[in-house]
Every structure is written in structure tokens, then in C-alpha cells.
Design a protein that fits this description.
- The complex is a heterodimer of chains A (about 220) and B (about 500).
- With about 220 residues, chain A is an alpha+beta fold.
- Helices cover about 25% and strands about 40% of the residues of chain A.
- In chain A, strands 1-3-2-6-9-5-10-4 form an 8-stranded antiparallel β-barrel, surrounded by 4 helices. Chain A has a two-stranded antiparallel ribbon with strand order 7-8.
- Chain A is globular, with a radius of gyration of 18 Å.
- Helix content of chain B is about 80%, strand content about 0%.
- By secondary structure, chain B is mainly α.
- The two termini of chain B are about 25 Å apart.
- The chains are: A alpha+beta (about 220), B mainly alpha (about 500).
- At the A-B interface, helix 1, strand 2, helix 2, strand 3 and helix 4 of A face helix 1, helix 2, helix 9 and helix 12 of B.
């Protein structure tokens, strides 16, 4: 692994309302980002009435992009100007570090002064992968421990504890990926709450990991 | 922006085209009575509200039930359980479908009860149940969808040779109407629940669609078989078009409430029962989920009642009035043109169309966008309605003159189009003919058939749904073809805007 030089590459993850993903990608491309993947997910709103009515879910799109740090910062600034992450409900953006990047050549980068955005390591990104239907428990557990909510992405997969074939089709059970941004000082509480509620430590119950967030937009206390 | 608000916005933009079309007609070629227009507007408001609430209910109530039911059934890993369970569910879901009951009672009425309402409903539902379990087995064993459709429609065409003209129309109509607003979300969720588990993601995407299409062939077959065995010849009674009595604005709505409520309760009942049985035998749902689903069912109920009251109280008579008014004009071309625009606008307000599009967006992660599907669909239904008008005006054209080439074309196309689109296209055929289209466009057709000389209400009026169910097959497969060509040439980028 030593052949991998330390590189200055960031993964940008943006969570916004459904339908805006393509627009956002277009903007990002104009500023030098050559790639992007849009996923569908759902987010939750904290509102008692809506929650009671069962209407608290909103469709979200999650945009994943990779770029070198300068481009990433620049693009985030621009997107911030366009989308206004500061306003509630306008979305969240954050970046995490990347160790190796293959497939993208020729970065375009200018020097741009860093401004706005919450800086340096105030947040963690917690990712939890659980069986279909369990994501809401994860969010509940996290909320209990002080999280503001989370985003649920549908997925599919299987660990070593589950492989099966039904009829003539190979099965990979449906999973849900929960993405939670938490303030550093709350991370531990959130994680232990999720571990306790979902018994993630037991085999086959799911996995959880934490990543450092370098920069975050759209989070407010 | 929460779910309800989002749906309201979505629905509002989809009901507007109909309102605009009707207003334009009123000020140009077909002036309408004022109270009829007021009722139309009240109906429109009810439809918008009802549709939005209903769609929320589908999202949080009906679809989750379909999903959980499907995956639970599959996990038994026993073929006979799957086949029997799906058949039973398909039968009861279909038997409770309001659109099928509407169609059946119209057939009953038009044939002076020679063909009873109950017999059509039961027979068509047996067909739907059978085909639904067959379609499910198809997903499980990866049988190519285009071959399945080729076989099914070949059988249908052989049966068609022995079927009387009247029944040909009725049986194709039955197919479109069995798969209605309550059934479609459920069937789509069912298909999705199984295919989502597949480890082959391409197959999983493709197999999320097509089940509705397969299910609706069942109704065609069984109704045809019924007509061949019983040898009933539908006698032709003309439906009298009475000028509506314009005394009251609200009473048509109020009168609708009680019967509609019963219809909707009936339609929801099978799904509620499935939910209860499922909940008793497999305790996997959390309290929160249950509460959400119950809420969803309540939403679906309220929304659908509002929607149907709006359609029946405000739209149906309007449809007949416009059809009658336009058909009595000197220039018959108007009828065809108006037919196109009404068909185009009506399908946009169809509840199940939204459910299908939502599923398409979900399954393809937003790759196939709303507008991309809606526009061809609307053009297709518009064309279908226009062609139905031509058939009313030109007595020489028979229904099979459209159906035979139409289905042959769509079957041939299914071998050249990406399988995903084959599934979507055949599903959208069943989806397009929902409560909105059936009541409004069928009423329009009836009005037109009544006014046109030499037109036979039974033969010409019916068969319209069959056309509406056919046209999307071709339109959406063309769309699939374009996608295929585009992604080959363009390669890297696909952009909609």
C-alpha cells in the first residue's frame, strides 16, 4: 500500500430534496467536477403532527462526487451560493477524505479563499447498514441520543451470515443504509445508542462505521 | 416541503390540463350549462385533494403492505404456497376493484342483464388471480417477459377468433379496468418486493415491471372464454342520453358519498385483510410501522372517496355532455381533435399513473424521469381516444382493425426494446385505464356514440378502454427504443433538461 501517495482528494456528499440532484450535478460539472452519482433516499422531518400522520418522510437525492480538495471546496462554495444550504430544509453537504482516486485525471483547480462552511472536524459521518425496515430504529435511536435526523438509502447486499437462493434466483437481501451527521461530542452517545438498540455487535445485525467530516454545510444547531 | 404538500403540487399540475381543456371547449365549440361547469370545478377540487391524499396513502400504506406481503411469501421458498397465495390475493384484490365493477354494471345495464354484473366481475378476477401468480412465477424463474407476452397474446388472439364483436370489446375493456387504482400500487409493490431481492441488479430492475401487464391479460382471456362457452350474444340497447336536470349543484356530490364510500371500503378490504393476516402470522412490523400503515390506509380511503365523488359528481356528466355536444356539430373532425386533447389531459390525472411513475423513478434511481414517461403516455392515450372517435364516426372500422395490428406491433417491438421498457410499457397499458380515464373518457365516448348516427353504444362505446390500454404499449416501447439508441450513440451523458 505504500505506493499510494498521500493525496488531497475529497469525497463530497450532498443530500437534497428530490429532483434537484441532476441540477446540482450540472452546476458541479461547470466548475470542474467530472463525475457524480445520484442516489435516491428518504429523509425524515422532525415535526410531531406530520410524524403522527405518518407523513414525516421526504424523498431525497444523495449526490456523491469525488474531486481534489481545491476543486471540492470551490464547488461547494458555488453550490452553497446557488442552493443556500444555510436555510433550513435546503440540504446538507459534507466532505470526507479519500485515500486513493483512480479514473479521474486532470484536476482543474484555482486558488480560492476559504470562507463559510463549518470548518475542520467538527462533525462525524456515521454510516449504518442494516436489514430492510430497520433503518427507522436506527434513526430513532440516534435521535434519542441527540441526532437531528438522518437519511435512508435503499440498498441490497449480504454478509457472510446470509446467503441464500430462493427458487431459481440468487438472493441478496434488501438493506437500508442510514447516513447520520453528528457533532463530534455527540457521536459517541449516538453510536452507543444505536449499538444498544439494534444489537449491531451481534453477527448478522448490521455494520456501523464513522468517518471524519472535513467540511460541512447546512447543519445548524 | 412534506409529502402531502409535494403530492398536492404534483397533482395540481396534472389536473390543470383537463380543466383548461374543458374551459376552452366551453368558450369555443361546445358551450356548456353554467351549473354543470360549477359542478365540474367542485369536482376538480375534490379530485385534486382526493388524489393527493390518496397518493400519500399509497406511499405509506398500500405499497408497504404489498412489499412486506411479497417478500414474506417468497421466503417460504415453496412454489405451491406462492402460487396459491398470489392467486387468492389477486382474485380478491381484483374482485373489489371499483373500476371493474363500474364497467361490469355498465355492461349489465347495456345488455339488459343478459350478462350479469357479478359474473363478469368474478370471471375477470379469476383470470387476474391466475395470471398474477403466473407472472410471479415468471419473476422467480427469470422467464423472459417478451416471450411470456407473445404466448399470452397469441392465446388471446386465437380466442378472439371465436368471440363475438361485442364481447371482444368487453373483454379487452375488462383487462384495462381490473387493474385500477387500488390494485396497481399493490401489484407494483408486490413485483418490486421480489425483484428487489435479486442479486442480479439488471434483472431486478427489469422485473419490477410487467406484472400488471401480465395480470391484465388474465381478465381478457377469462371473459372471452366465458363468452365462447355461454354463447351469449349481447343484445344492443341504446343508453338514453338525458339532459341533466340542473336544479342542484351540490346534490349530485352528496348523493355520491354513500355509494362511493361503500365501493372504496370494498376495494380496500382485501388489502386490509392481507395486512391483518400478515401481521398475525409474521410479527416483524414494529409498532411505528403499523401505525404508519394504518394511517396510510386511512389516507387511501379518504383520498379515494373524495376522488371518486369528484369524478362521479362533476366529471362524468361533463364527459357525456361534451361528447354529445361535440358529436352533434357539423364538422366531425372536431370530435377527433377534442378526443385527442381530452385523452391527453385525462391520463395525467390518473392516480395509478402516478404510482407507476413513482416506482419507475425509484427503481431506476431517477434515471427515467417523470416527464419522459408522462408525455408519451399522454400522447398515446390521446391518440387512442382520437382513434376511438374515428371508429364511432366511420362504422366500417371495427375494434380488431386497431387491436390486431396494435398488439402485433407491440409484441414485435418487445424483442428489440430493452426489457425494462417492455415491462414498463405493458404495465402502463393497465395503468392508463384507471378510474379517471374510465369514467371521464368513457362518458365522453358514450355521449359521442349516442349523438353520432349509426353508432352503436355497446360496440363503439366500449372498446375505448381497450384502446387506452393498447396505445401506451407502443408509445413507451418507442421511448425505450429511443433510450437504447441514445445511450448507444451519446455514450457518456444523458440529460433530460
Amino acid at each position: 500500500m505504500s505506493s499510494f501517495k498521500m493525496i488531497d482528494v475529497e469525497q463530497i456528499c450532498i443530500i437534497i430534496n428530490f429532483g434537484l440532484g441532476s441540477k446540482l450535478l450540472q452546476i458541479a460539472k461547470n466548475y470542474g467536477i467530472s463525475n457524480g452519482t445520484v442516489l435516491l433516499g428518504k429523509g425524515t422531518v422532525n415535526n410531531r403532527i406530520l410524524d403522527f400522520l405518518g407523513l414525516s418522510d421526504i424523498r431525497k437525492e444523495i449526490v456523491l462526487m469525488v474531486a481534489n480538495k481545491k476543486t471540492a471546496d470551490q464547488v461547494l462554495e458555488k453550490l452553497h451560493d446557488e442552493i443556500n444550504f444555510e436555510k433550513p430544509g435546503h440540504g446538507i453537504a459534507f466532505t470526507t477524505s479519500v485515500r486513493l482516486l483512480v479514473g479521474i485525471g486532470g484536476y482543474k483547480s484555482d486558488n480560492l479563499k476559504e470562507r463559510r462552511g463549518v470548518d475542520d472536524n467538527m462533525y462525524d459521518a456515521i454510516t449504518v447498514i442494516v436489514d430492510m425496515g430497520k433503518a427507522e430504529y436506527v434513526i430513532d435511536a440516534a435521535t434519542k441520543a441527540g441526532s437531528k435526523g438522518g437519511t435512508i438509502i435503499k440498498g441490497r447486499g449480504s454478509g457472510i451470515h446470509e446467503t441464500s437462493k430462493l427458487f431459481s434466483m440468487n438472493i441478496e437481501p434488501e438493506k437500508e443504509i442510514v447516513l447520520i451527521l453528528s457533532e463530534k461530542d455527540k457521536t459517541e452517545a449516538i453510536v452507543s445508542s444505536i449499538r444498544k438498540e439494534l444489537k449491531i455487535d451481534e453477527p448478522g445485525k448490521g455494520i456501523l462505521y464513522i468517518q471524519n467530516v472535513n467540511k460541512a454545510y447546512g447543519l445548524y444547531k | 416541503m412534506n409529502l402531502l404538500f409535494f403530492k398536492l403540487k404534483e397533482v395540481l399540475s396534472s389536473v390543470l390540463p383537463i380543466i383548461v381543456t374543458v374551459i376552452i371547449l366551453n368558450f369555443t365549440i361546445a358551450p356548456l350549462d353554467v351549473s354543470l361547469i360549477i359542478r365540474f370545478f367542485i369536482g376538480a377540487v375534490l379530485i385534486i385533494l382526493g388524489l393527493a391524499i390518496f397518493l400519500c396513502g399509497v406511499d405509506i400504506g398500500i405499497s408497504p403492505i404489498g412489499n412486506s406481503f411479497g417478500s414474506t411469501i417468497i421466503k417460504t421458498n415453496k412454489l405451491w404456497i406462492v402460487v396459491i397465495a398470489i392467486f387468492i390475493v389477486g382474485f380478491f384484490v381484483s374482485i373489489a376493484e371499483p373500476s371493474l365493477r363500474i364497467l361490469a354494471s355498465q355492461v349489465d345495464f347495456v345488455t339488459s342483464s343478459v350478462i350479469s354484473k357479478e359474473s363478469i366481475v368474478v370471471i375477470a378476477s379469476i383470470g387476474v388471480g391466475t395470471m398474477l401468480s403466473l407472472g410471479f412465477v415468471r419473476i422467480l424463474y427469470n422467464i423472459p417477459i417478451n416471450k411470456v407476452f407473445t404466448i399470452l397474446y397469441s392465446i388471446i388472439f386465437i380466442l378472439a377468433l371465436f368471440t363475438s364483436r361485442e364481447f371482444l370489446a368487453i373483454s379487452f375493456d375488462a383487462s384495462g379496468s381490473t387493474t385500477g387504482a387500488m390494485t396497481i400500487p399493490f401489484i407494483l409493490a408486490l413485483a418490486h418486493s421480489v425483484s428487489a431481492m435479486k442479486s442480479d441488479s439488471k434483472a431486478s430492475e427489469e422485473d419490477s415491471f410487467g406484472l400488471v401487464g401480465i395480470a391484465s391479460t388474465g381478465a381478457i382471456m377469462t371473459v372471452m372464454i366465458m363468452s365462447i362457452i355461454s354463447k351469449t350474444d349481447a343484445s344492443t340497447v341504446s343508453l338514453e342520453y338525458n339532459d341533466p336536470i340542473f336544479t342542484s349543484i351540490f346534490s349530485p356530490f352528496i348523493q355520491q358519498i354513500a355509494p362511493t364510500t361503500i365501493e372504496v371500503i370494498l376495494a380496500l378490504l382485501p388489502i386490509v385483510i392481507i395486512f391483518l393476516v400478515f401481521q398475525i402470522f409474521s410479527f416483524k412490523l414494529s409498532r411505528k410501522t403499523i401505525r404508519k400503515i394504518v394511517m396510510g390506509l386511512v389516507f387511501a380511503f379518504i383520498g379515494f372517496v373524495l376522488f371518486l365523488v369528484g369524478v362521479n359528481g362533476g366529471f362524468m356528466e361533463m364527459g357525456v355532455a361534451i361528447g354529445y355536444g361535440v358529436a352533434t356539430l357539423e364538422n366531425k373532425v372536431y370530435l377527433v381533435i377534442v378526443g385527442f386533447f381530452l385523452g391527453f389531459a385525462t391520463v395525467l390525472a390518473e392516480p395509478s399513473v402516478y404510482v407507476l411513475i413513482h416506482q419507475i423513478e425509484d427503481v431506476t434511481s431517477g434515471y427515467i424521469k417523470r416527464k419522459v414517461v408522462l408525455i408519451p403516455l399522454a400522447i398515446a392515450v390521446g391518440t387512442a381516444t382520437a382513434l376511438s372517435m374515428v371508429r364511432i364516426l366511420v362504422p366500417g372500422i371495427q375494434l380488431w382493425h386497431y387491436l390486431l395490428p396494435g398488439y402485433v406491433i407491440s409484441l414485435v417491438m418487445s424483442y428489440f426494446v430493452p426489457k425494462l421498457f417492455v415491462g414498463i410499457a405493458f404495465d402502463s397499458g393497465g395503468v392508463a385505464a384507471g378510474p379517471m380515464t374510465i369514467t371521464f373518457i368513457l362518458a365522453f365516448t358514450r355521449g359521442a356514440a349516442e349523438a353520432a348516427e349509426g353508432a352503436n353504444v355497446l360496440v363503439d362505446g366500449f372498446g375505448m378502454i381497450a384502446m387506452v390500454a393498447l396505445a401506451p404499449l407502443i408509445a413507451l416501447q418507442i421511448l425505450g427504443f429511443i433510450f437504447k439508441v441514445k445511450s448507444k450513440n451519446g455514450g457518456i451523458e444523458y440529460s433530460d433538461e
